[in-house]
Design brief:
Elements (H helix, E strand, L loop, with lengths): L1 H22 L6 H8 L3 H7 L3 H27 L5 H18 L1 H11 L2 H6 L1 H24 L5 H22 L5 H11 L8
Helix pairs in contact: 1-2, 1-4, 1-6, 2-3, 4-5, 4-8, 5-9, 8-9, 9-10
């Protein structure tokens, strides 16, 4: 019975996750979530008291997963001595990660454009903040070691470029020349001819 309850709960979360990512948070109702999960609306409410609770749980799980990916990246980078090769690894890793997890990033990008929704989930973000700050500091250190005069701005520039690339890749699908754009980004940093 406990396993069935866990499966039902996970199915509701998975359905909500997919609908929030494709239809937006406000464009998705609990009725739609229940229908996609093939449960009654009442049963969905037995597991989650609101859409906000569902979204909070989804974000906490996916952000924890993102932190685990960042930990893996930092482990890989720690074995590389050349600071420029570290930046190549950082850029390639994040482009690949976001390309492979488009559902999450579709949801993430839609939420960052809805600050009132994020504000209601501040308790989730606050719980993760110490860990995300630590990862951000590791990236600043990496860029500082590579010779960046302003590693904080440099990190934001790289993040903005990667986010822009991935937003376009998601909206254009196979028509977006991801590999050519990746090569151009690395070229802008003078990294294209360096091998990992």
């Amino acid at each position: 019975m406990a396993k069935q309850n866990e499966n039902t709960r996970n199915n509701i979360k998975k359905s909500a996750y997919e609908l929030f990512a494709t239809q937006g948070f406000h464009g998705t109702s609990m009725s739609q979530i229940a229908t996609q999960a093939e449960v009654s609306k009442g049963l969905a409410y037995n597991y989650f008291s609101s859409k906000e609770e569902l979204l909070g749980e989804i974000l906490e799980e996916t952000f924890l997963d993102s932190i685990a990916h960042s930990d893996r990246l930092m482990g890989i980078i720690s074995t590389i001595h050349d600071p420029h090769k570290r930046i190549i690894t950082l850029i390639n890793y994040y482009i690949d990660l976001v390309s492979e997890h488009q559902t999450f990033y579709r949801l993430y990008f839609s939420l960052i454009l809805q600050p009132h929704v994020i504000k209601n989930l501040s308790h989730v973000l606050e719980k993760l903040k110490p860990r995300t700050d630590q990862i951000q500091e590791q990236i600043f250190t990496l860029l500082r070691e590579a010779g960046s005069e302003d590693p904080e701005a440099e990190a934001m520039l790289i993040k903005s470029m990667i986010n822009g690339i991935l937003m376009n890749a998601m909206s254009m699908g196979n028509e977006f020349p991801l590999e050519r754009v990746r090569k151009l980004l690395l070229d802008r940093y003078g990294l294209v001819n360096q091998q990992i």
